[in-house]
Structure formats: structure tokens, C-alpha cells
Amino acid sequence: MKNRPFILVPGPSALYFTVEDHLKEALALQVPSISHRSEFYTEIHRETVSNIRKLLNIPSDFHVFFTGSATEVWERIAQNLIIAKSGHVVNGAFSKKNFEAAKAMGVDAHKIEAVEGDLPNVTAESFPKDIEVLNFTHNETSTGVMTPMDNIREARNLYPDAIISLDVVSSAPYVDIDFEAVDTAYFSVQKCFGLPAGLGVWIVNDRCVQKAKEKSQAGHSLGSYHSIPSLLKMAVKDQTPETPNVLGVYLLGKVAGDMLNKGLDVLRRETIYKSTVLYETLKKHPSLSPLAEKEELQSKTVVVAKCEGGSERFLKALAEKGLQPGSGYGGAKNTQIRIANFPTHSKELIEMLSDELMKID
Ligand SMILES: *Cc1c(COP(=O)(O)O)cnc(C)c1O
């Protein structure tokens, strides 16, 4: 077998370095075969939720639910929290997909859009006053733009009646979510957490629970098994409405525990150090430059570079060294590269990648 490459694609990405051991232990404990109504499952569920709460510093009036993916949450938000209108801050492919999902669900969805690599400015005129949910993508994985938390606080003041929704798929747990300014947040586990795909985490506060109740009382459907009332009814019993991804829930709890033991401050410092190494490399390099030109918008967890003369020679040369970053997203496939800077990517690996990038001109 060929040597396995270091995967630096921004999702799915390399597994967190402790996953292999946790997986072995899970098999020894027969985790994939246990009943989701057993005492063992509720222990796993409780531990995972507790670790996620600690890691993301989630206040007690927020609830934590498990879904199949972040994509599912887009649909659930439309189904549970919006009767008529939503607002979307669009600055790349994922925020755009969220907007499209709302439209497909019959929502009167409004968007403001930025040029690639930038963020649109949210003003009092950006959206109708009566939008029910305002959607932000904290870290746009397609462009490497990270939204400053101040922008979200300002939007909260401009649209006080709207539920603020935050996609933290490719930034949690690095992101320090201001739960005063955010009512619901969600992520999938195959990005920063370095876990196998197939599990989403949806965090909602009581304002969301209330809104779902109002929508239901007004005679609208909230969907079935993954409606907020159905999820909440089971979550208080440390269970889920359906048979969940038990192995995924188990592994997430273990990895979140490992990250807690390491310390979130250490994890954040390392992330910043490694991203600085990467952006310094882009600055020095004759034919690479960050897609996000404004420093305050440059993502710490997904670094996207424009490649003069195309991305292919970079991807090829790096592959020979066993390094596999992502290509550009969608239409930018051949002109950009995307580098995941997740907790499992070591300082040594990022320094090696930077050295190898400098050898390509
Ligand atoms: C990957 C990604 C998603 C979608 O995640 P799925 O697990 O495929 O549902 C949504 N938002 C962002 C920002 C992402 O990077």
C-alpha cells in the first residue's frame, strides 16, 4: 500500500489523532450494537452533551440536539423557526446553500451577498424588518472568510426580533460563540473535530423552543421526528427520537473530552500560531495570495489561497511529499487551494507544508 497522505482538506479531514484508540475501545465495548434506549446509551449521550457544553461554553438555557448533518439543520431551521421570512448573509458556497435550502422549503428568503473573499455589510436596510431568522456562516469554508463576532452583535442590535443563527461547521470549537448574540448554532463533526462524517450537533435556546411552539400553534407543520419539540422531549431523557449514530455520538464525546483535557486556550493558541505561519507563507510566496485580503476576515481554521498560474502544480508537488490540501471550491477548483488548519493538524505538519509551498514557484 502507498504511504497514506496527510489530509489537509477542509472536510472531511484527517481524523483527530486520538480517534483510532477510541474507535478500538468502542468496538471492544460493542458501542455500535447497543440499544439506543439502554442505560449505556444514555450515559454516552449525557457525557457527550456535557463535554460539548463545557467545550463551547454553552449557557444552561440552550439545548443540544443530534442530527444527521449540518445540511439537515438548514432544513430544520426553516421548518421549525420560520413561518414566512428569513435573511441570509451570503459570502460563499455554504451560506448560499443555506439560502437555497430555505427557498426550497418555501421560505421567503432574502440575501445580501459579498464579492468573493469579502463580507457584505449588514445595515438596517439589508433585510425586511420582519425576518424571523437571520443566518450567518461564521467560517465560510469555500472562501476562507471568518465573520468577526462583532458583526453578529451589531446585526443582533439591528434586527432584535430575529433569531440569529450561526453556522460554526468549520470553526467549532476554535470559535468563541457569543451566546448573548446567537440563538442557534450548529456544526458537523468531520471538520475541526476530526471525526467520521454522519453526525450534526444543533444548539438552540428557549427562544427557538418558543418560536417552534408558536409556529405549531398557528397550524403549521414542524416536520416529524426532528422537530424541536420532539428532539427536546427526548433530549431531557438523554435520548434521541430515532436510532442515532451511536458510534458518532460516542466518538464526539471522547474527542471533546480530549480537547477539554488539552485546554481550549492551548488549542486556540496553536490554531492562531499555525494560521500565522500559513498566512506569512502566502505573503512571501511569489504566486500565492490569500483570497480574503482583509486581515481581520482571514479565517484561522481554513486558509484559502489564490494560485497564479493555476493550482494543479501546487497540488501535484505537494502530493509527492504526501501532503493533500483541498483544491478550490466549485468553480475555483483549478485556481485556488484550501488548507485545513484543524486541531489535529500539528505545528510540524503546517511548517512542513509551508516549507514545501515555498519550494514551488
Ligand atoms: C461542510 C459544511 C457544511 C455542510 O456540512 P454537512 O456535514 O455536509 O452537512 C455546512 N456549512 C459549512 C460552513 C461547511 O463547511
Automatic annotation (TrEMBL):
It catalyses: 4-(phosphooxy)-L-threonine + 2-oxoglutarate = (R)-3-hydroxy-2-oxo-4-phosphooxybutanoate + L-glutamate; O-phospho-L-serine + 2-oxoglutarate = 3-phosphooxypyruvate + L-glutamate. One of its GO terms (biological process) is L-serine biosynthetic process. The keyword Transferase applies. It is an enzyme of class 2 (transferase). Its EC number is 2.6.1.52. It comes from the Bacteria. Keywords: Amino-acid biosynthesis, Aminotransferase, Pyridoxal phosphate, Pyridoxine biosynthesis, Serine biosynthesis, Transferase. GO terms for molecular function: alanine-glyoxylate transaminase activity; L-serine-pyruvate transaminase activity; O-phospho-L-serine:2-oxoglutarate aminotransferase activity. Residues 23-324 form the Aminotransferase class V domain. Coiled coil: none annotated. Pfam families: Aminotran_5. Its cofactor is pyridoxal 5'-phosphate. Pathway: Amino-acid biosynthesis; L-serine biosynthesis; L-serine from 3-phospho-D-glycerate: step 2/3. PANTHER family: ALANINE--GLYOXYLATE AMINOTRANSFERASE 1 (PTHR21152:SF24), AMINOTRANSFERASE CLASS V (PTHR21152). Belongs to the class-V pyridoxal-phosphate-dependent aminotransferase family. SerC subfamily. This is phosphoserine transaminase. It comes from Fulvitalea axinellae.
